[in-house]
Amino acid sequence: MAQNSRKWDIIILGGGPAGLTAAIYGSRAGYEVLVLERMLPGGEITLTENLDNYPGFPEGTSGPEFGQDLEKQAKRFGASMETVEVNKAFLEEQPKRMETSKGNYLADKVIVSTGTRPRSLGVPGEDKLKGRGISYCASCDAAFFKGKEVAVVGGGDAAVEEALFLTRFAEKVYLIHRRNRLRAVKALEEGLFSNPRVEFLGDTVISEITGENKVEGVQVVAKDKEYHLPVQGVFIYIGRLPHTELLQGQLDADENGYLVTDEEMRTSRSGVFAAGDIRRKVFRQVVTAAADGAIAAYTASRELQLP
Ligand code: NAP
Staple partner for 163: which of 1, 118, 152, 231, CB 3.0–4.6 Å? Predict the structure, then answer.
């Protein structure tokens, strides 16, 4: 595989809010910073239509715009960006080596901010009908369900937020949650319960997603009955899993796979930091991801200055 002989001070894996904030701080501190991102700048936030709770935007802002602005700001301080898939990170080597589809990239310090991906429901029909009426991204796919009936699964902020977004397109949105109480914040819950297009099905689980070539419904099990709900779309929002495959167990993680760091974002391996949703933490938000990114870059910069 091609070897890129240039050695960067800091390589950041993942260009979401955590990674791009780390890029802003690292490059502004005068270090050579490269961000490796496989999709769009902003990462998952680009799939959020309205970022409503980031401080300083009284009317909210659009996710894609926010991602692009973060990238512009990082570039203004001299950070470089590469759109590439990282296959494996060799974190024990010095310099540390990132093996990618475009060759190897080397760095003294690495900040891991690869975020999370959606968790699957794991019921019959899910694998077969993925992309055929089953989606994990309402902002990407809601428009296909204009005038139709859809089910959203989950009871957290993501499920409720996306159910509300779907009401702009779908005629009817069922929110199916395994308990009777939502986990989402009050403001979202109030929005949900006051929306005439939403029907909340609490204490209910999906046992199967039915359909041959496309979703035709879901088999649901409630406390005292089991029935078939005819819907054309199923949006699954039951939490997320950390994106750690490329690390292949080189960093300490908790029982759910989230990377364990100290308060200064150091992982279990010297010269490697973690920031954002990939990290074990209590509150996964854009603002906390950005804060992690700033701290990780600050700690990495300090170590580069005073090895
Ligand atoms: P989450 O808060 O972990 O909620 C996951 C939901 O899925 C829970 O209601 C859970 O039920 C349910 N669930 C889990 N496994 C299930 C299964 N096998 N079958 C059925 N239901 C299952 O995840 P999230 O909503 O994706 O949010 C992740 C993080 O991002 C959170 O920290 C959240 O606050 C944040 N977030 C924030 C915003 C915002 O502030 N606007 C928007 C999106 C996400 P139980 O409640 O019974 O456990």
Answer: 152
Number of Cβ atoms within 10 Å of the Cβ of 161: 23
- Ligand 1 neighbourhood includes 75 CB (under 6 angstroms): no
pLDDT tens digits, 1-46? 556 678 999 999 999 999 999 999 999 999 999 999 998 888 888 8
- Cα 235 to averaged position of ligand 1 atoms, centre (Å): 13
DSSP 28-45: HTT--EEEEESS-TTGGG
219-257: pLDDT as tens digits: 999 998 999 999 999 999 999 999 999 999 999 999 999
Is 224 catalytic? The answer is no
Q: Is 62 helix (H, G, I), strand (E, B) or coil?
A: coil
Return the closest-CA partner of residue 99 out of 87, 108, 114. Answer: 87
In the DSSP assignment, the letter for residue 258 is P
Active site residue 140: yes
Q: How many CB atoms lie within 10 A of CB 185?
A: 13
- Identify which of 11, 45, 47, 49 has the alpha carbon closest to the alpha carbon of residue 27: 11
Q: Do 49 and 168 touch, CB atoms closer than 8 A?
A: no
Residue 194 Cα to ligand 1 middle (Å): 21
